[in-house]
């Protein structure tokens, strides 16, 4: 995804909506979450994935379960990986199921 526009995960998109709905700046939200503003910015702009610890921080600060954030982010990343994986030459793999 080097030359392509980065896709924003549904988790990052939802977090953006939460911050906007609470009228929080990224700087204030980063302070509340105990992370650098650049970390939050990178997540919101699709340059960095949400770590499980970050999901726990979101739960603690905003009350939405860590599993909610992690599931949204992981499902998105897995779909991207599967698309990329299946577009490769897979002739060297030996599937046990068809």
UniProtKB/TrEMBL annotation:
Classification via CDD domains: HTH_XRE (cd00093)
GO molecular function: DNA binding
Stored InterPro entries: Cro/C1-type_HTH (IPR001387), Lambda_DNA-bd_dom_sf (IPR010982), Toxin_antidote_HigA (IPR013430)
Highest taxon listed in the record's lineage: Bacteria
Chain ranges of the HTH cro/C1-type domain: 24-69
Any Pfam family hit: HTH_3
Coiled coil segments of this chain: none
SUPFAM superfamilies: lambda repressor-like DNA-binding domains
Name of the protein in question: HigA family addiction module antidote protein
Biological source species: Persicirhabdus sediminis
């Amino acid at each position: 995804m080097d030359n392509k526009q980065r896709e924003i995960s549904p988790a990052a998109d939802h977090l953006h909506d939460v911050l906007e709905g609470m009228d929080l700046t990224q700087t204030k939200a980063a302070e509340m979450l105990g992370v650098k503003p650049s970390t939050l910015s990178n997540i919101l702009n699709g340059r960095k994935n949400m770590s499980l610890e970050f999901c726990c921080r979101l739960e603690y600060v905003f009350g939405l379960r860590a599993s909610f954030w992690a599931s949204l982010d992981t499902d998105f990343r897995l779909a991207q990986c599967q698309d990329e994986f299946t577009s490769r030459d897979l002739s060297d793999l030996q599937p046990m199921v068809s």
